[in-house]
Amino acid sequence: MSTTFRSLHHSATLSVNDNITTTSTDAQDDSIDECTALVLTLIDSLPFLPLDLLEEWLPKAAGLMSRIGSAEGRQKCRDRFWEVLSSGEMDVERSCVCVAWWGTRGGREAVLFEPRNTKYEMSGALGSNRDLKRVSCEDAKVPDT
After folding, report:
1. Dihedrals φ, ψ of 101, to 5°?
2. Fewest Cβ atoms nearer than 10 Å: which of 50, 68, 85, 145?
3. Strands annotated E in the chain
4. Range of the domain at 35
């Protein structure tokens, strides 16, 4: 099962954002891009994963949503993710894993908010002000007492 999920994840990361039109009898527009379709497939499969794989794939599925090109597609995935987590599709053990991930392991932020720029920054580091004076080791010497 893990191999299937890895293949699906890999396909979603390489997918293009071309629309796929589905045929349905509904009057609404059901066109979604390939990446959205793959992410929705991954989300729909989460209730059937063993617990250890569920812990691994919850953040990966949430992370794939940021790769979706359209805001409408991301919203469809968010809605479906929330529906899977809250509608009773998971059994008790899987629900406990999902609640812990949502509340304390960054799940809420990963699903609901757009990803920030992922440049590496050090907490308290200097900003982008380029005209700061460079300090050499000689400048940092402690005076003799």
Report:
1. -65, -40
2. 145
3. 19-21, 31-33
4. 2-112
Phi, psi of 33 (to 5 degrees): -85, 170
Distance between CA atoms of 87 and 43, rounded to whole angstroms? 13
pLDDT 10s digits, 101-130: 988 888 888 888 866 655 555 565 555 555
CB atoms within 10 A of CB 69: 16
Asked if the structure places residue 126 within a domain, the reply is no
Q: What is the rounded distance in angstroms from the CA atom of residue 110 to the CA atom of residue 63?
A: 7
DSSP summary character for residue 20: E
pTM, entire model: 0.64
Please give the Cα distance from 68 to 41 (Å, whole number). 14
How far is it, in rounded angstroms, from Cα 143 to Cα 62? 54
